[in-house]
Automatic annotation (TrEMBL):
<dbReference type="InterPro" id="IPR000760">
    <property type="entry name" value="Inositol_monophosphatase-like"/>
</dbReference>
<keyword id="KW-0479">Metal-binding</keyword>
<dbReference type="Pfam" id="PF00459">
    <property type="entry name" value="Inositol_P"/>
</dbReference>
<dbReference type="InterPro" id="IPR022337">
    <property type="entry name" value="Inositol_monophosphatase_SuhB"/>
</dbReference>
<dbReference type="InterPro" id="IPR033942">
    <property type="entry name" value="IMPase"/>
</dbReference>
<keyword id="KW-0378">Hydrolase</keyword>
<protein>
    <recommendedName>
        <fullName>Inositol-1-monophosphatase</fullName>
        <ecNumber>3.1.3.25</ecNumber>
    </recommendedName>
</protein>
<dbReference type="InterPro" id="IPR020550">
    <property type="entry name" value="Inositol_monophosphatase_CS"/>
</dbReference>
<keyword id="KW-0460">Magnesium</keyword>
<dbReference type="InterPro" id="IPR020583">
    <property type="entry name" value="Inositol_monoP_metal-BS"/>
</dbReference>
<comment type="similarity">
    <text>Belongs to the inositol monophosphatase superfamily.</text>
</comment>
């Protein structure tokens, strides 16, 4: 049986402590769907309370570390120490509508000797299915104690590709449409599930063969990025470069499909 580091154990404990409340609140949200007021305020409260629980656990274990949080922003620690990157409820819109597809995402960012950020530990936890996807740099990606590998499919017409579709408040619809129109006719199917951290985890697990999305925040992508890489996959920005977090663009797949998808994306954006 594989043993993970103490740091992954800390992250898993934090996620699992927040999960029962999220599961209970999700049950309440399903009932609130029929109310006139709707569940929006309730979900915001669930999000904040999950974050508070996770922060308390992480700070108890690593009190001088920094944190980047979706709801609360930055919590400063020792500048020389690593940083936790936390999304307490990725897939809020799914949660809001009673759709059982959301996750807790926690990553650790350390600094390389040249000062560049480096994601070294990742955990994506699905409270409803009790699935724990985790990765450590150099030690692979795992679902509980089962090693994960990206899909071995080589051809686009066999591939199912995930994406995120632009919605209100986002201005990337024209770019997304160009990419979609280039990829859709070439693949077996495109899926939009609504939780980027789980999309990355599913690519790592071979459930989807690839994924693209842009305008992602760091807490949406940090953990998933490492999961895919440690499962043998490739992740780049839309130009094929290693500037995903700077450009907020992500294209993930195995080596064969990544090169094919990158060519389609590049041609579409140059058109």
């Amino acid at each position: 049986m594989v043993s993970h580091s103490g740091l992954i154990a800390v992250m898993q404990k934090a996620a699992r402590k927040a999960a029962p409340r999220l599961r209970r609140d999700f049950g309440e949200v399903e009932q609130l769907q029929v109310s006139k007021k709707g569940p929006g305020d309730f979900v915001s409260m669930a999000d904040r309370q999950a974050e508070q629980t996770i922060v308390e656990e992480l700070r108890a274990a690593r009190p001088d570390w920094n944190l980047l949080l979706e709801e609360s922003g930055e919590i400063a620690g020792n500048p020389a120490k690593p940083r936790f990157i936390v999304d307490p409820l990725d897939g809020t819109t799914n949660f809001l509508h009673g759709i059982p597809h959301f996750a807790i995402s926690i990553a650790v960012e350390e600094k390389k000797p040249n000062g560049q950020p480096d994601i070294t530990h990742a955990l994506v936890y699905q409270p409803l299915t009790d699935e724990t996807f985790w990765a450590e740099k150099g030690r692979g990606s795992w679902l509980h104690d089962r090693r994960l590998r990206v899909s071995a499919r080589r051809y686009l017409d066999e591939a199912v590709i995930g994406t995120g579709i632009p919605h209100v408040g986002r201005s990337d619809a024209p770019k997304w449409s160009k990419i979609y129109n280039a990829i859709a006719p070439e693949v077996a199917g495109i899926r939009r599930f609504g939780a980027a951290s789980l999309d990355f985890a599913w690519v790592a697990a071979g459930r989807m063969d690839g994924f693209w999305e842009d305008d992602l925040d760091l807490w949406d992508s940090a953990a998933g990025l490492l999961l895919v890489k440690e499962a043998g996959g490739f992740v780049s920005d839309f130009r094929g470069q290693d500037r995903m977090m700077d450009r907020r663009e992500y294209l993930a797949a195995n080596g064969d499909l990544h090169s094919r998808l990158h060519k389609l994306v590049g041609n579409a954006l140059r058109a």
